[in-house]
Amino acid sequence: MDTYSFEDFVGDRDTFLAEHFNKKPLLRKGALAGRLDGLPSVRQLDDVLALETTPPSYLRVTKGGKGVPSGAYTRTVARGAALAEAVNPEKVYELFRSGGTVTWNSLHHVLPSARRLLAPFTDTFACEGEVVLFVTPARNDGFSPHHDSIDVYVVQVDGTKTWRVWATPEVRRGDEASYTAEELGEPVIEVTLQPGDVLYVPHGTPHAAAARSELSLHLSVGIEPRRWRDLLRDTVDSVVRDPEFHAFPYLPGEGPQGDEAVADLSRHIELLRDRLASLEPVSEAKRLAQTGRERAGAGRPREFSRLHAADALTTDSLVRRSSAPVEIGESDGGKTGIRVNGHRIAVPDAVARTLRDLDGGRQVTTSEFFPGVDAARSLSAARGLARLGVLECAEHAVFPVRPSTADHHDQGK
Ligand SMILES: [Fe+2]
Fold first, then answer.
1. What separation in Å is there between the alpha carbon of 207 and the centre of ligand 1?
2. pLDDT tens, residue by residue, 293-311
3. Which of 84, 54, 57 is nearest to 70 (CA)?
4. Could you tell me which residues come within 8 angstroms of residue 241 by beta carbon, excluding any fewer than 6 positions away?
């Protein structure tokens, strides 16, 4: 299964950030040609629709440029004692056959392939994003000229779609808006996207799209990076978690108690100012990036896969230290204490020595991991430490153990 990097979509990262990001559209013909297997497909869309439990808010059907009321493709289902509206797949297919465009919002909520597509973007921009899927029947007008309030990365997956993109205006409006082709003039990009083509449309940039002779499926990754106000609010939030800011003040605003409250407020503002001034910008930037990625789910662990890989280690497997920080203590009576991911355990000194040796990225077979014992016991020790996240298999992709959220919050203090 293909996984994707940010560069797969936009090419060289520095060039993209300097010349296109937030400035002008980018067309990359064939960027993912032959590498579409890992992306959401028509078949996966059928599978998700067949689940029959989709809340109507995920789906939108448009016909002749107008939204179809959700009542036209939903039904009422019993969920326990309650009744709920759910999408009716047959009605969706019927609307599609008669010329409707089906839009599936937040596809990454339900489809792993959509999460994989989103991850390089949320990882790069450390913010949340959304994968929206558009499936359009042949010879459909699609969407008339408009602009969106977020950055959009379009990936054509099936069929073809003709796009017109106009120049990104100097001054951009924050809201969404429609245009007529006459008021826009000549587009800067006019292209028929083929499967594997990628198109970047910065926010506020007018664009229009229409399917041609066959069904078209394209994915649109929408990203709205956090603004300064979002980042600074997060920074202040992290600072005021300190117990110094826990008290309940009384703020009557007048009289002797009022004067005292105002003086108290002034002290707290000063304290906040001092705390902000003492923040180390490099580590605070790292913390903000990390919290952004966590909120976007880009760093969500794959614990079952990791534990499965640990249990599948054999005496021939090569292991190495994972990226999880490990504190190795002093020897005491033949055992050495180690601390990792909030666990404290004692390991034989020989095992602790191997762990120190592996610090520079070196690898060792599981049977050599615990010198002085037989291969089966050495394997057992390696498996135990792999389950705890100290070791990982060096031969095939194993998902890293990320330090806990609490550890990240401590970094900026
Ligand atoms: Fe759009």
1. 7
2. 887 666 566 788 888 989 9
3. 57
4. 409
Show the tokens assigned to 388: 């705890």
> pLDDT at residue 172 above 90?
no
3-state SS assignment for residue 63: strand
* Same fold flag, 6-223 and 303-410: no
Q: How far is the CA of 178 from the centre of ligand 1 (A)?
A: 10
**Beta-carbon neighbour count of residue 134 at 10 Å?**
22
- Span from the CA of 146 to the centroid of ligand 1 (angstroms): 6
CA dihedral over 229, 231, 232, 237, signed as positive or negative: positive
Does residue 303 sit in helix, strand or coil? helix
**Domain spans in the chain, listed from the N-terminal domain onward:** 6-223, 228-282, 303-410
User: What's the CA-to-centroid distance between 330 and ligand 1, angstroms?
Assistant: 60
pLDDT tens digits, residue range 214-271?
889 999 999 988 889 999 999 999 999 999 999 888 877 677 777 888 888 999 999 9
Q: What CATH number labels 303-410? A: 3.90.930.40
Return the pLDDT at 407. 36
Between the CA of 169 and the centroid of ligand 1 the distance, in Å, is 16
* Positive or negative: CA dihedral 291, 293, 295, 301: negative
Query: pTM for the full model?
Result: 0.74
Q: How far is the CA of 177 from the centre of ligand 1 (A)?
A: 10
CATH architecture of 6-223: Sandwich (2.60)
